[in-house]
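Retro notes
What went well: the complex prediction finally ran end to end.
Inputs used:
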Amino acid sequence: MALEYPEELKYLDSHEYLRVEGDTVVVGVTSYAVDQLGDIVFVSLPEEGDRINRGDSFGSIESVKAVEELYAPLSGTVLSVNTVAVEDPALIGSDPYGDGWLIKVRLADPGDELSETMSAEEYRERVEG
Amino acid sequence: MVARSLGLMSDLKRTPLYAQHLQLGARLVPFGGWEMPLQYSTLTGEHRAVRTGAGLFDISHMGKYTLSGPDVLAQIQRLVPSDLARLQPGQAQYTVLLNEQAGIIDDLIFYCRSPEHWVVIVNGATNDKDRRWLAEHLQGVHFDDLTGTHTLLALQGPAAAETLQPLVDIDLARLGRFGHAQVSLVGKPAFLARTGYTGEDGFEMMSPQPAGIALWQSLTAAGVPPCGLGARDTLRLEAAMHLYGQDMDESTTPLEASLGWVVDWDKPDYLGREILLAQKARGTERRLVGLTVEGRQIARHGYGLFDGERQVGVVTSGTLTPTVGRPIALAYVSTPLARIGSTLEVDIRGRRVPATVIRRPFYRRAL
């Protein structure tokens, strides 16, 4: 089954995606990540108003197989947290780019921090070799 | 998330069913020196198939031996704490190989075909070690290693018997738990045993390679879902069955591992006996227990268990049970805290989460 990487998103090599909407960014994990993890059973996320720093862990995502840290792809303030996905982590696996998003962040410094992201095409090449 | 490191697959052994696994879209992972299917569809889907119907596993990586000769029984009796002389032909015993310190070299099943002829199935990851141990300790025994020439398939689940019956030439109703027979399966000779590692009814079937592939194809064509090592691990853990190398090893004795039931205390003269008797008399300092953990996070292998500030144990296996829907674990715990109902805390990556010692197994099939 081919995995999808929507064109309009930006991607990180740590398998998070970013959906940029002005100076706010929705962060989630890619379909490749959820495919690798398998059945997701738990997600731990920061709280609204928390400050996250690029490169630091902002939570974790856990499947029966493994637990992986989530790394902040940018610095900013958490505007909202997907509490529905926290209650029902299987959503992340079934709809990672839609209802399975994780957090929405207001960028501390819009612009240069996003320069290290990949396009959908670059990300696909990276994960599929 | 960190990029997942891929194991070097090139040095790994493959079972005769490798081509079938690829064709079925299995995700393959390194396991004990073998490239094995982790899952074909989803772990929980495969787990549920075994709990509610039937599932098929390729476990050809497991070590498969035959031992024969007039003195076999006396020789193998020296190596295990169970009294294998009690077995009639057609019966089998789960037991452990012990070293001189009563440390567990492996867990395995001895199948008695006759007092002079035994089938032995051991873990895949310990196959080389076991073979060396047996070669060193068995004299005048004819040893055949069938690991490379035979497939081993496990058909497990409440519907296993009705699924298998049309393919086999014996009445499966006459084969009890741990019973075994030499049979004809899809028209080819095979060794069939009513054993498994899932907590369900089921069968393990050993065949020469071409027949084993045909058997796999017959069962998958009949609609039995193939299941991988992921589901095998959650199934065995719900049934509180130990995984060698994780829940026990050469530094643990059967008493510490809560496998005292495999020890026949009246049995004379086997490796590790004096140490086991002494340990029984004075008690062990730690014991393997079952835990249930609050919340939904998994207490994983190596996580510490605490009573206040004092570390009192360590988790050896953990999962979120697909059937029961809560985190469970096996752990070694300081004996005074190992009683049922004892409350502890598990350190889940820096956070303390309450855990309670509960009765094993976590799942028991309906009779």
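What we learned: Chain A has a mean pLDDT of 91.
What to try next: split runs per interface for comparison.
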